[in-house]
Each structure stands twice: as structure tokens, then as C-alpha cells.
Structure prediction request, 116 residues.
Amino acid sequence: MSRLQQAPVVRVNRFSVPPEARDEFMKLIQRTHEVIRAQPGFLDDMILEQNAGTETFNLITILQLEGEHVLQPIIAAVARSDEAAGIDRQALSRSLGVESSVGFYSPVVLPQLLAA
Prediction:
């Protein structure tokens, strides 16, 4: 396994959620994180919320995983769980009016930042 595959990976998901969709979407987030937390390679997670006024809620979910090698098995576990529950998360997000963006990050040690 390469060093890149062994380095911790942080996945950051950002969601804009209409107020009327918040409760149902939070149930989906909770369900998803319960599945993810049970997977090998899961290290930590955090869910952050910002009330952006009456128009939307901003949610950030942060997952820390052992490395790239656990990404596909975790994604597959979530997909299996969704299928078993009859959830189409893309269709559900569209119907709720949720907008999302996803990014993957790697931890950086401060001396590495200074050298850049």
C-alpha cells in the first residue's frame, strides 16, 4: 500500500438545507453516520450547523478515515444500507431542495505549510 493510501483522509460535506427540510435531512445524516461509524477505517466525525437566517441552514459534516483504502468500502456500505431501506439519497436531496458539495482533504503539519 502506498503512503498516500495510508495517510488519513478527511471528507468534508457542505449542505445548504431549507428550514422546512431540516428535520428530515438531519435524520438522513444521523442514519448515514451510524452506518459509517460502524465501518473499519472510521476514525472520527463531526456535524456542524449554522443557521443562515430564515432562508437556509448550512450543515458541514466531517469524516476522518484511516486512508483512501477505506473510502470505497465505506461508500459501498452506505449504498447497501440505503438500498435495504429503500432510500434514493440523490432523489431525496433534490425533493428536499438540499444543495451539497464534497471535498477530500489531507492533514497538513504546520512546518509543511511554512515550506510551501
Observations:
- The first strand starts at residue 9 and ends at 17.
